[in-house]
Amino acid sequence: MTAASRTHQATRAAPAPPPSHLRKQEDLVNQPSKSPQPRTDVPPGTLPGPADRRAGRGTPAVWGNVPPRNPNFTGRVELLDALHRRLRKEKATAVLPNALHGMGGVGKTLLAVEYLYRHLGDYDLVWWISAERTAQIALSLVELAPRLGLEAGSEATWSVTAVLEALRRGEPYDNWLLVFDNADSPEAVRPYFPSGGPGNILVTSRNPQWASVAKPLEVNVFRREESVDLLRRRGPDISDDEADRLAEALGDLPLAIEQAAAWRAETGMPVDEYLRLLDEKQVDLLGLAAPLDYQLPVIAAWNVSLDQLEAKNPAAMQLLQLCAFCAPESISRNLFAGRAGASITPELDAVLRDPIRLGQAIREIGRYSLARFDIRANTLQIHRLVQTALISRMTEAEQQRMRQGIHLLLSANDPNDPHNAAHWPRYGELYAHLIVSEAVRSTDPYVRRLIINEVLYLLRWGNYEAALQLARSAYESWRQDGGEDDSKTLELSKWMGAVLFCEGRYGECAAVNDRVLEAYRRTVGEDHEDTLDALGNVAIDHRVKGDFAAALELAESVHGRYLRLLGEEDPETLRAAHNLGVSLRLAGQFARARELDARTWHSKQQLYGQDHVVSLVTWLSLILDIRELGDYHTALTYQRELTERATRLLGPNNPFTLSNDRHLAVALRKAGQHEEAQAMAEQSQSALVARYGENNPGSMASTLELSIDLRHAGDLTTARNLGVRVHRQYADLYGPKHPHTLSAEIDLAITHRLLGDAEASKAIDERGLADLRRVLGESHPSSLVCATNLASDLYALGEYEAARELDEQTLALSTEVLGADHPSTLACAANLPLDLNALGRREEAERLHSATAERLNRALGPDHPAVRQAVDWEHRADCDIDPLPL
């Protein structure tokens, strides 16, 4: 919906939780009722922060995804104070490691978490973002949207762009703090920063390049007294001398100190015995390539604990080994609830089958500080250095077994329906672990099914870049393993082509589709359903090339063969029917398309439900048929309903929703509601360009629509400039003679004429009409519209007889093709009296003028601008061409 048409204001007093398709499973951290309370048990030797001093002030109105506080946090007083001063002074601050101590183990994240809990009362909004992958950043910001009041029906689209803009404006919270944790590349993460605004940004990173982007705060190892303090707090029986020797051996590295303190608290082992074990472990590690020198103390300390865990609870150790191959982000406990398709180890199998034993294993891991369990979020988090320690001590066979085990668990969690938005949160939850565990290397068919489903999820969700990256990575691995003709490789290739299509990379898409079709013909034969599916994709490539006739012929053949092979109600037949409807519409056969799309939509609703994405897609096709048949008011009613439903079900930043926003702008304009149409077009164009760039096909279509709306609003110069630019983009993408390129130029020609350059308009329309008749035929609706506009060019140049002759020819043909009461036919009929009047045939002109005005009134309603213009003798009706989806 456009801002001008929305009447519901966002409710900001009680921000709503994210919708089900974006909320993590059992994500209790983000619920308003679970905001943490200011801590009063400040550790000895630390100064209370403002939140501690003003506990009565309350907590942030929005508090999201912040990890639990470390109850044993020690020291860092000067760093916390410096961070507080830095955030008050600088807009963006980066917590970085000291160059002498490499990348890990110094406690950057723990420092940031402690700062947040100490300063609860200082912020209205605190949002924690795992920033290692941009896909996760985008998901987190979309999850923040409803907490900012950006809900369906509000004045802003629910998107990353809208979230960043709301933060920039400080609406509804002007005192916010975003934390980007483990942000690697500044170039990848900075686009997700609000461009200014009243809040602050805190970055934790191992990458020193952040020092050139944000004011750095270097985190060093503990001061010796801090190390001693932590060791004595966890084990008061340790002497100062023993603590000093232990801290020296561990290099004062905070993670190593915490690990050693946890070990002694758990076992009571004497310091000398622990130091002996530590020396042994460090000697063992020197022969390994993985740990860096600075990591040796902490990995050695963990290995001491890992030895004990392995001896005491082998299943807990193996569970931890599984986690070593997951992403460092939080690991949902639900991941271990799925039944792996095959045995991992007998001990681990027994634990995974028993929730009680699983809980015991997780608690055992936590006792040794080898991982943290967040009860509120029901997640387990393991530090990357623990993962390094675990992997470095495993044999190659053990690594292979545990990596395969996590792959099996990931596949066991596959909902196996990526087109269903209800399952998107689960696919989003699995994605990071799938990438880090290198699941594309698995040969298990269920794991490969999960990979394909993840590609489909990313495609449906609209993250084309991530979808293509995953598809290509899997394709290279599978092709090397089983060859290009392997069934899963071919299926993956098919969907990789779909991603390329959505990105507008049509040449690459066609090459993939041709290769897949040839492989299917070679391996399963001409009449196999996989071959038919590949043929349908080649038909789409014909549409992209502008050969709508060839596309229609092939789509009809594919649909007919599916009918004979699988029957009318089979999902594959319905998909072929939908594609046939697209080809019929592009060929100008709107009535046939409507009849087929209505049947297909009904069948899809029966099969999938009315709110499933595949049902909604065909409903849009039916609405476009209705619109192109000239029933603008019905089409607008349905388009409003579909746009609102897509926004509610999929979120406003989903590509399908964004496409519906654009079609709503077209429907509004066709129905004569130009002001609202322009507002909707501006919103749609801004959102699409922000997400996919200016040269994406959807972005280009929305820009073309905006140029038309600006022309209707009288902003002719801006409309022309925008029209020139988008026509050039269409020519670059599709070629100069593609029907969509010609349509963009014909729309531009109207603006040239209204600006007084009828010669330029005539030249464009003459070329365009000749080309359209050649590629689409004389009777195609686009050819008829172009002819109507060319007659207006002739009229503007005083060539009244030529204008009359062309209008009469076009009117007769349009009446035959579209019907006498189609708005395009009536536009031509409204122009003909002006030709006759200019030629002195006043009485004939008045009769036709009066009859046409009455028919326009019945077709469009008395308030439509076209009807009001038809009453006078000054305005000719201009016809726009709206390129239809390919």
From TrEMBL:
Q: Where is the composition biased (Polar residues)?
A: 1-10, 28-38
In alphabetical order, the GO MF annotations are:
ADP binding
Annotated region (Disordered) at 1-70
Domain named NB-ARC: residues: 80-233
Q: Which domain of life is it from?
A: Bacteria
Question: What start-end ranges are recorded for coiled-coil regions in this protein?
Answer: none
**Cited InterPro entries:** DUF7779, NB-ARC, NLR-like, P-loop_NTPase, TPR-like_helical_dom_sf
List, alphabetically, the NCBIfam families matched: FxSxx_TPR
Q: What is this protein called?
A: Tetratricopeptide repeat protein
What organism does the UniProt record list as the source?
Streptomyces cupreus
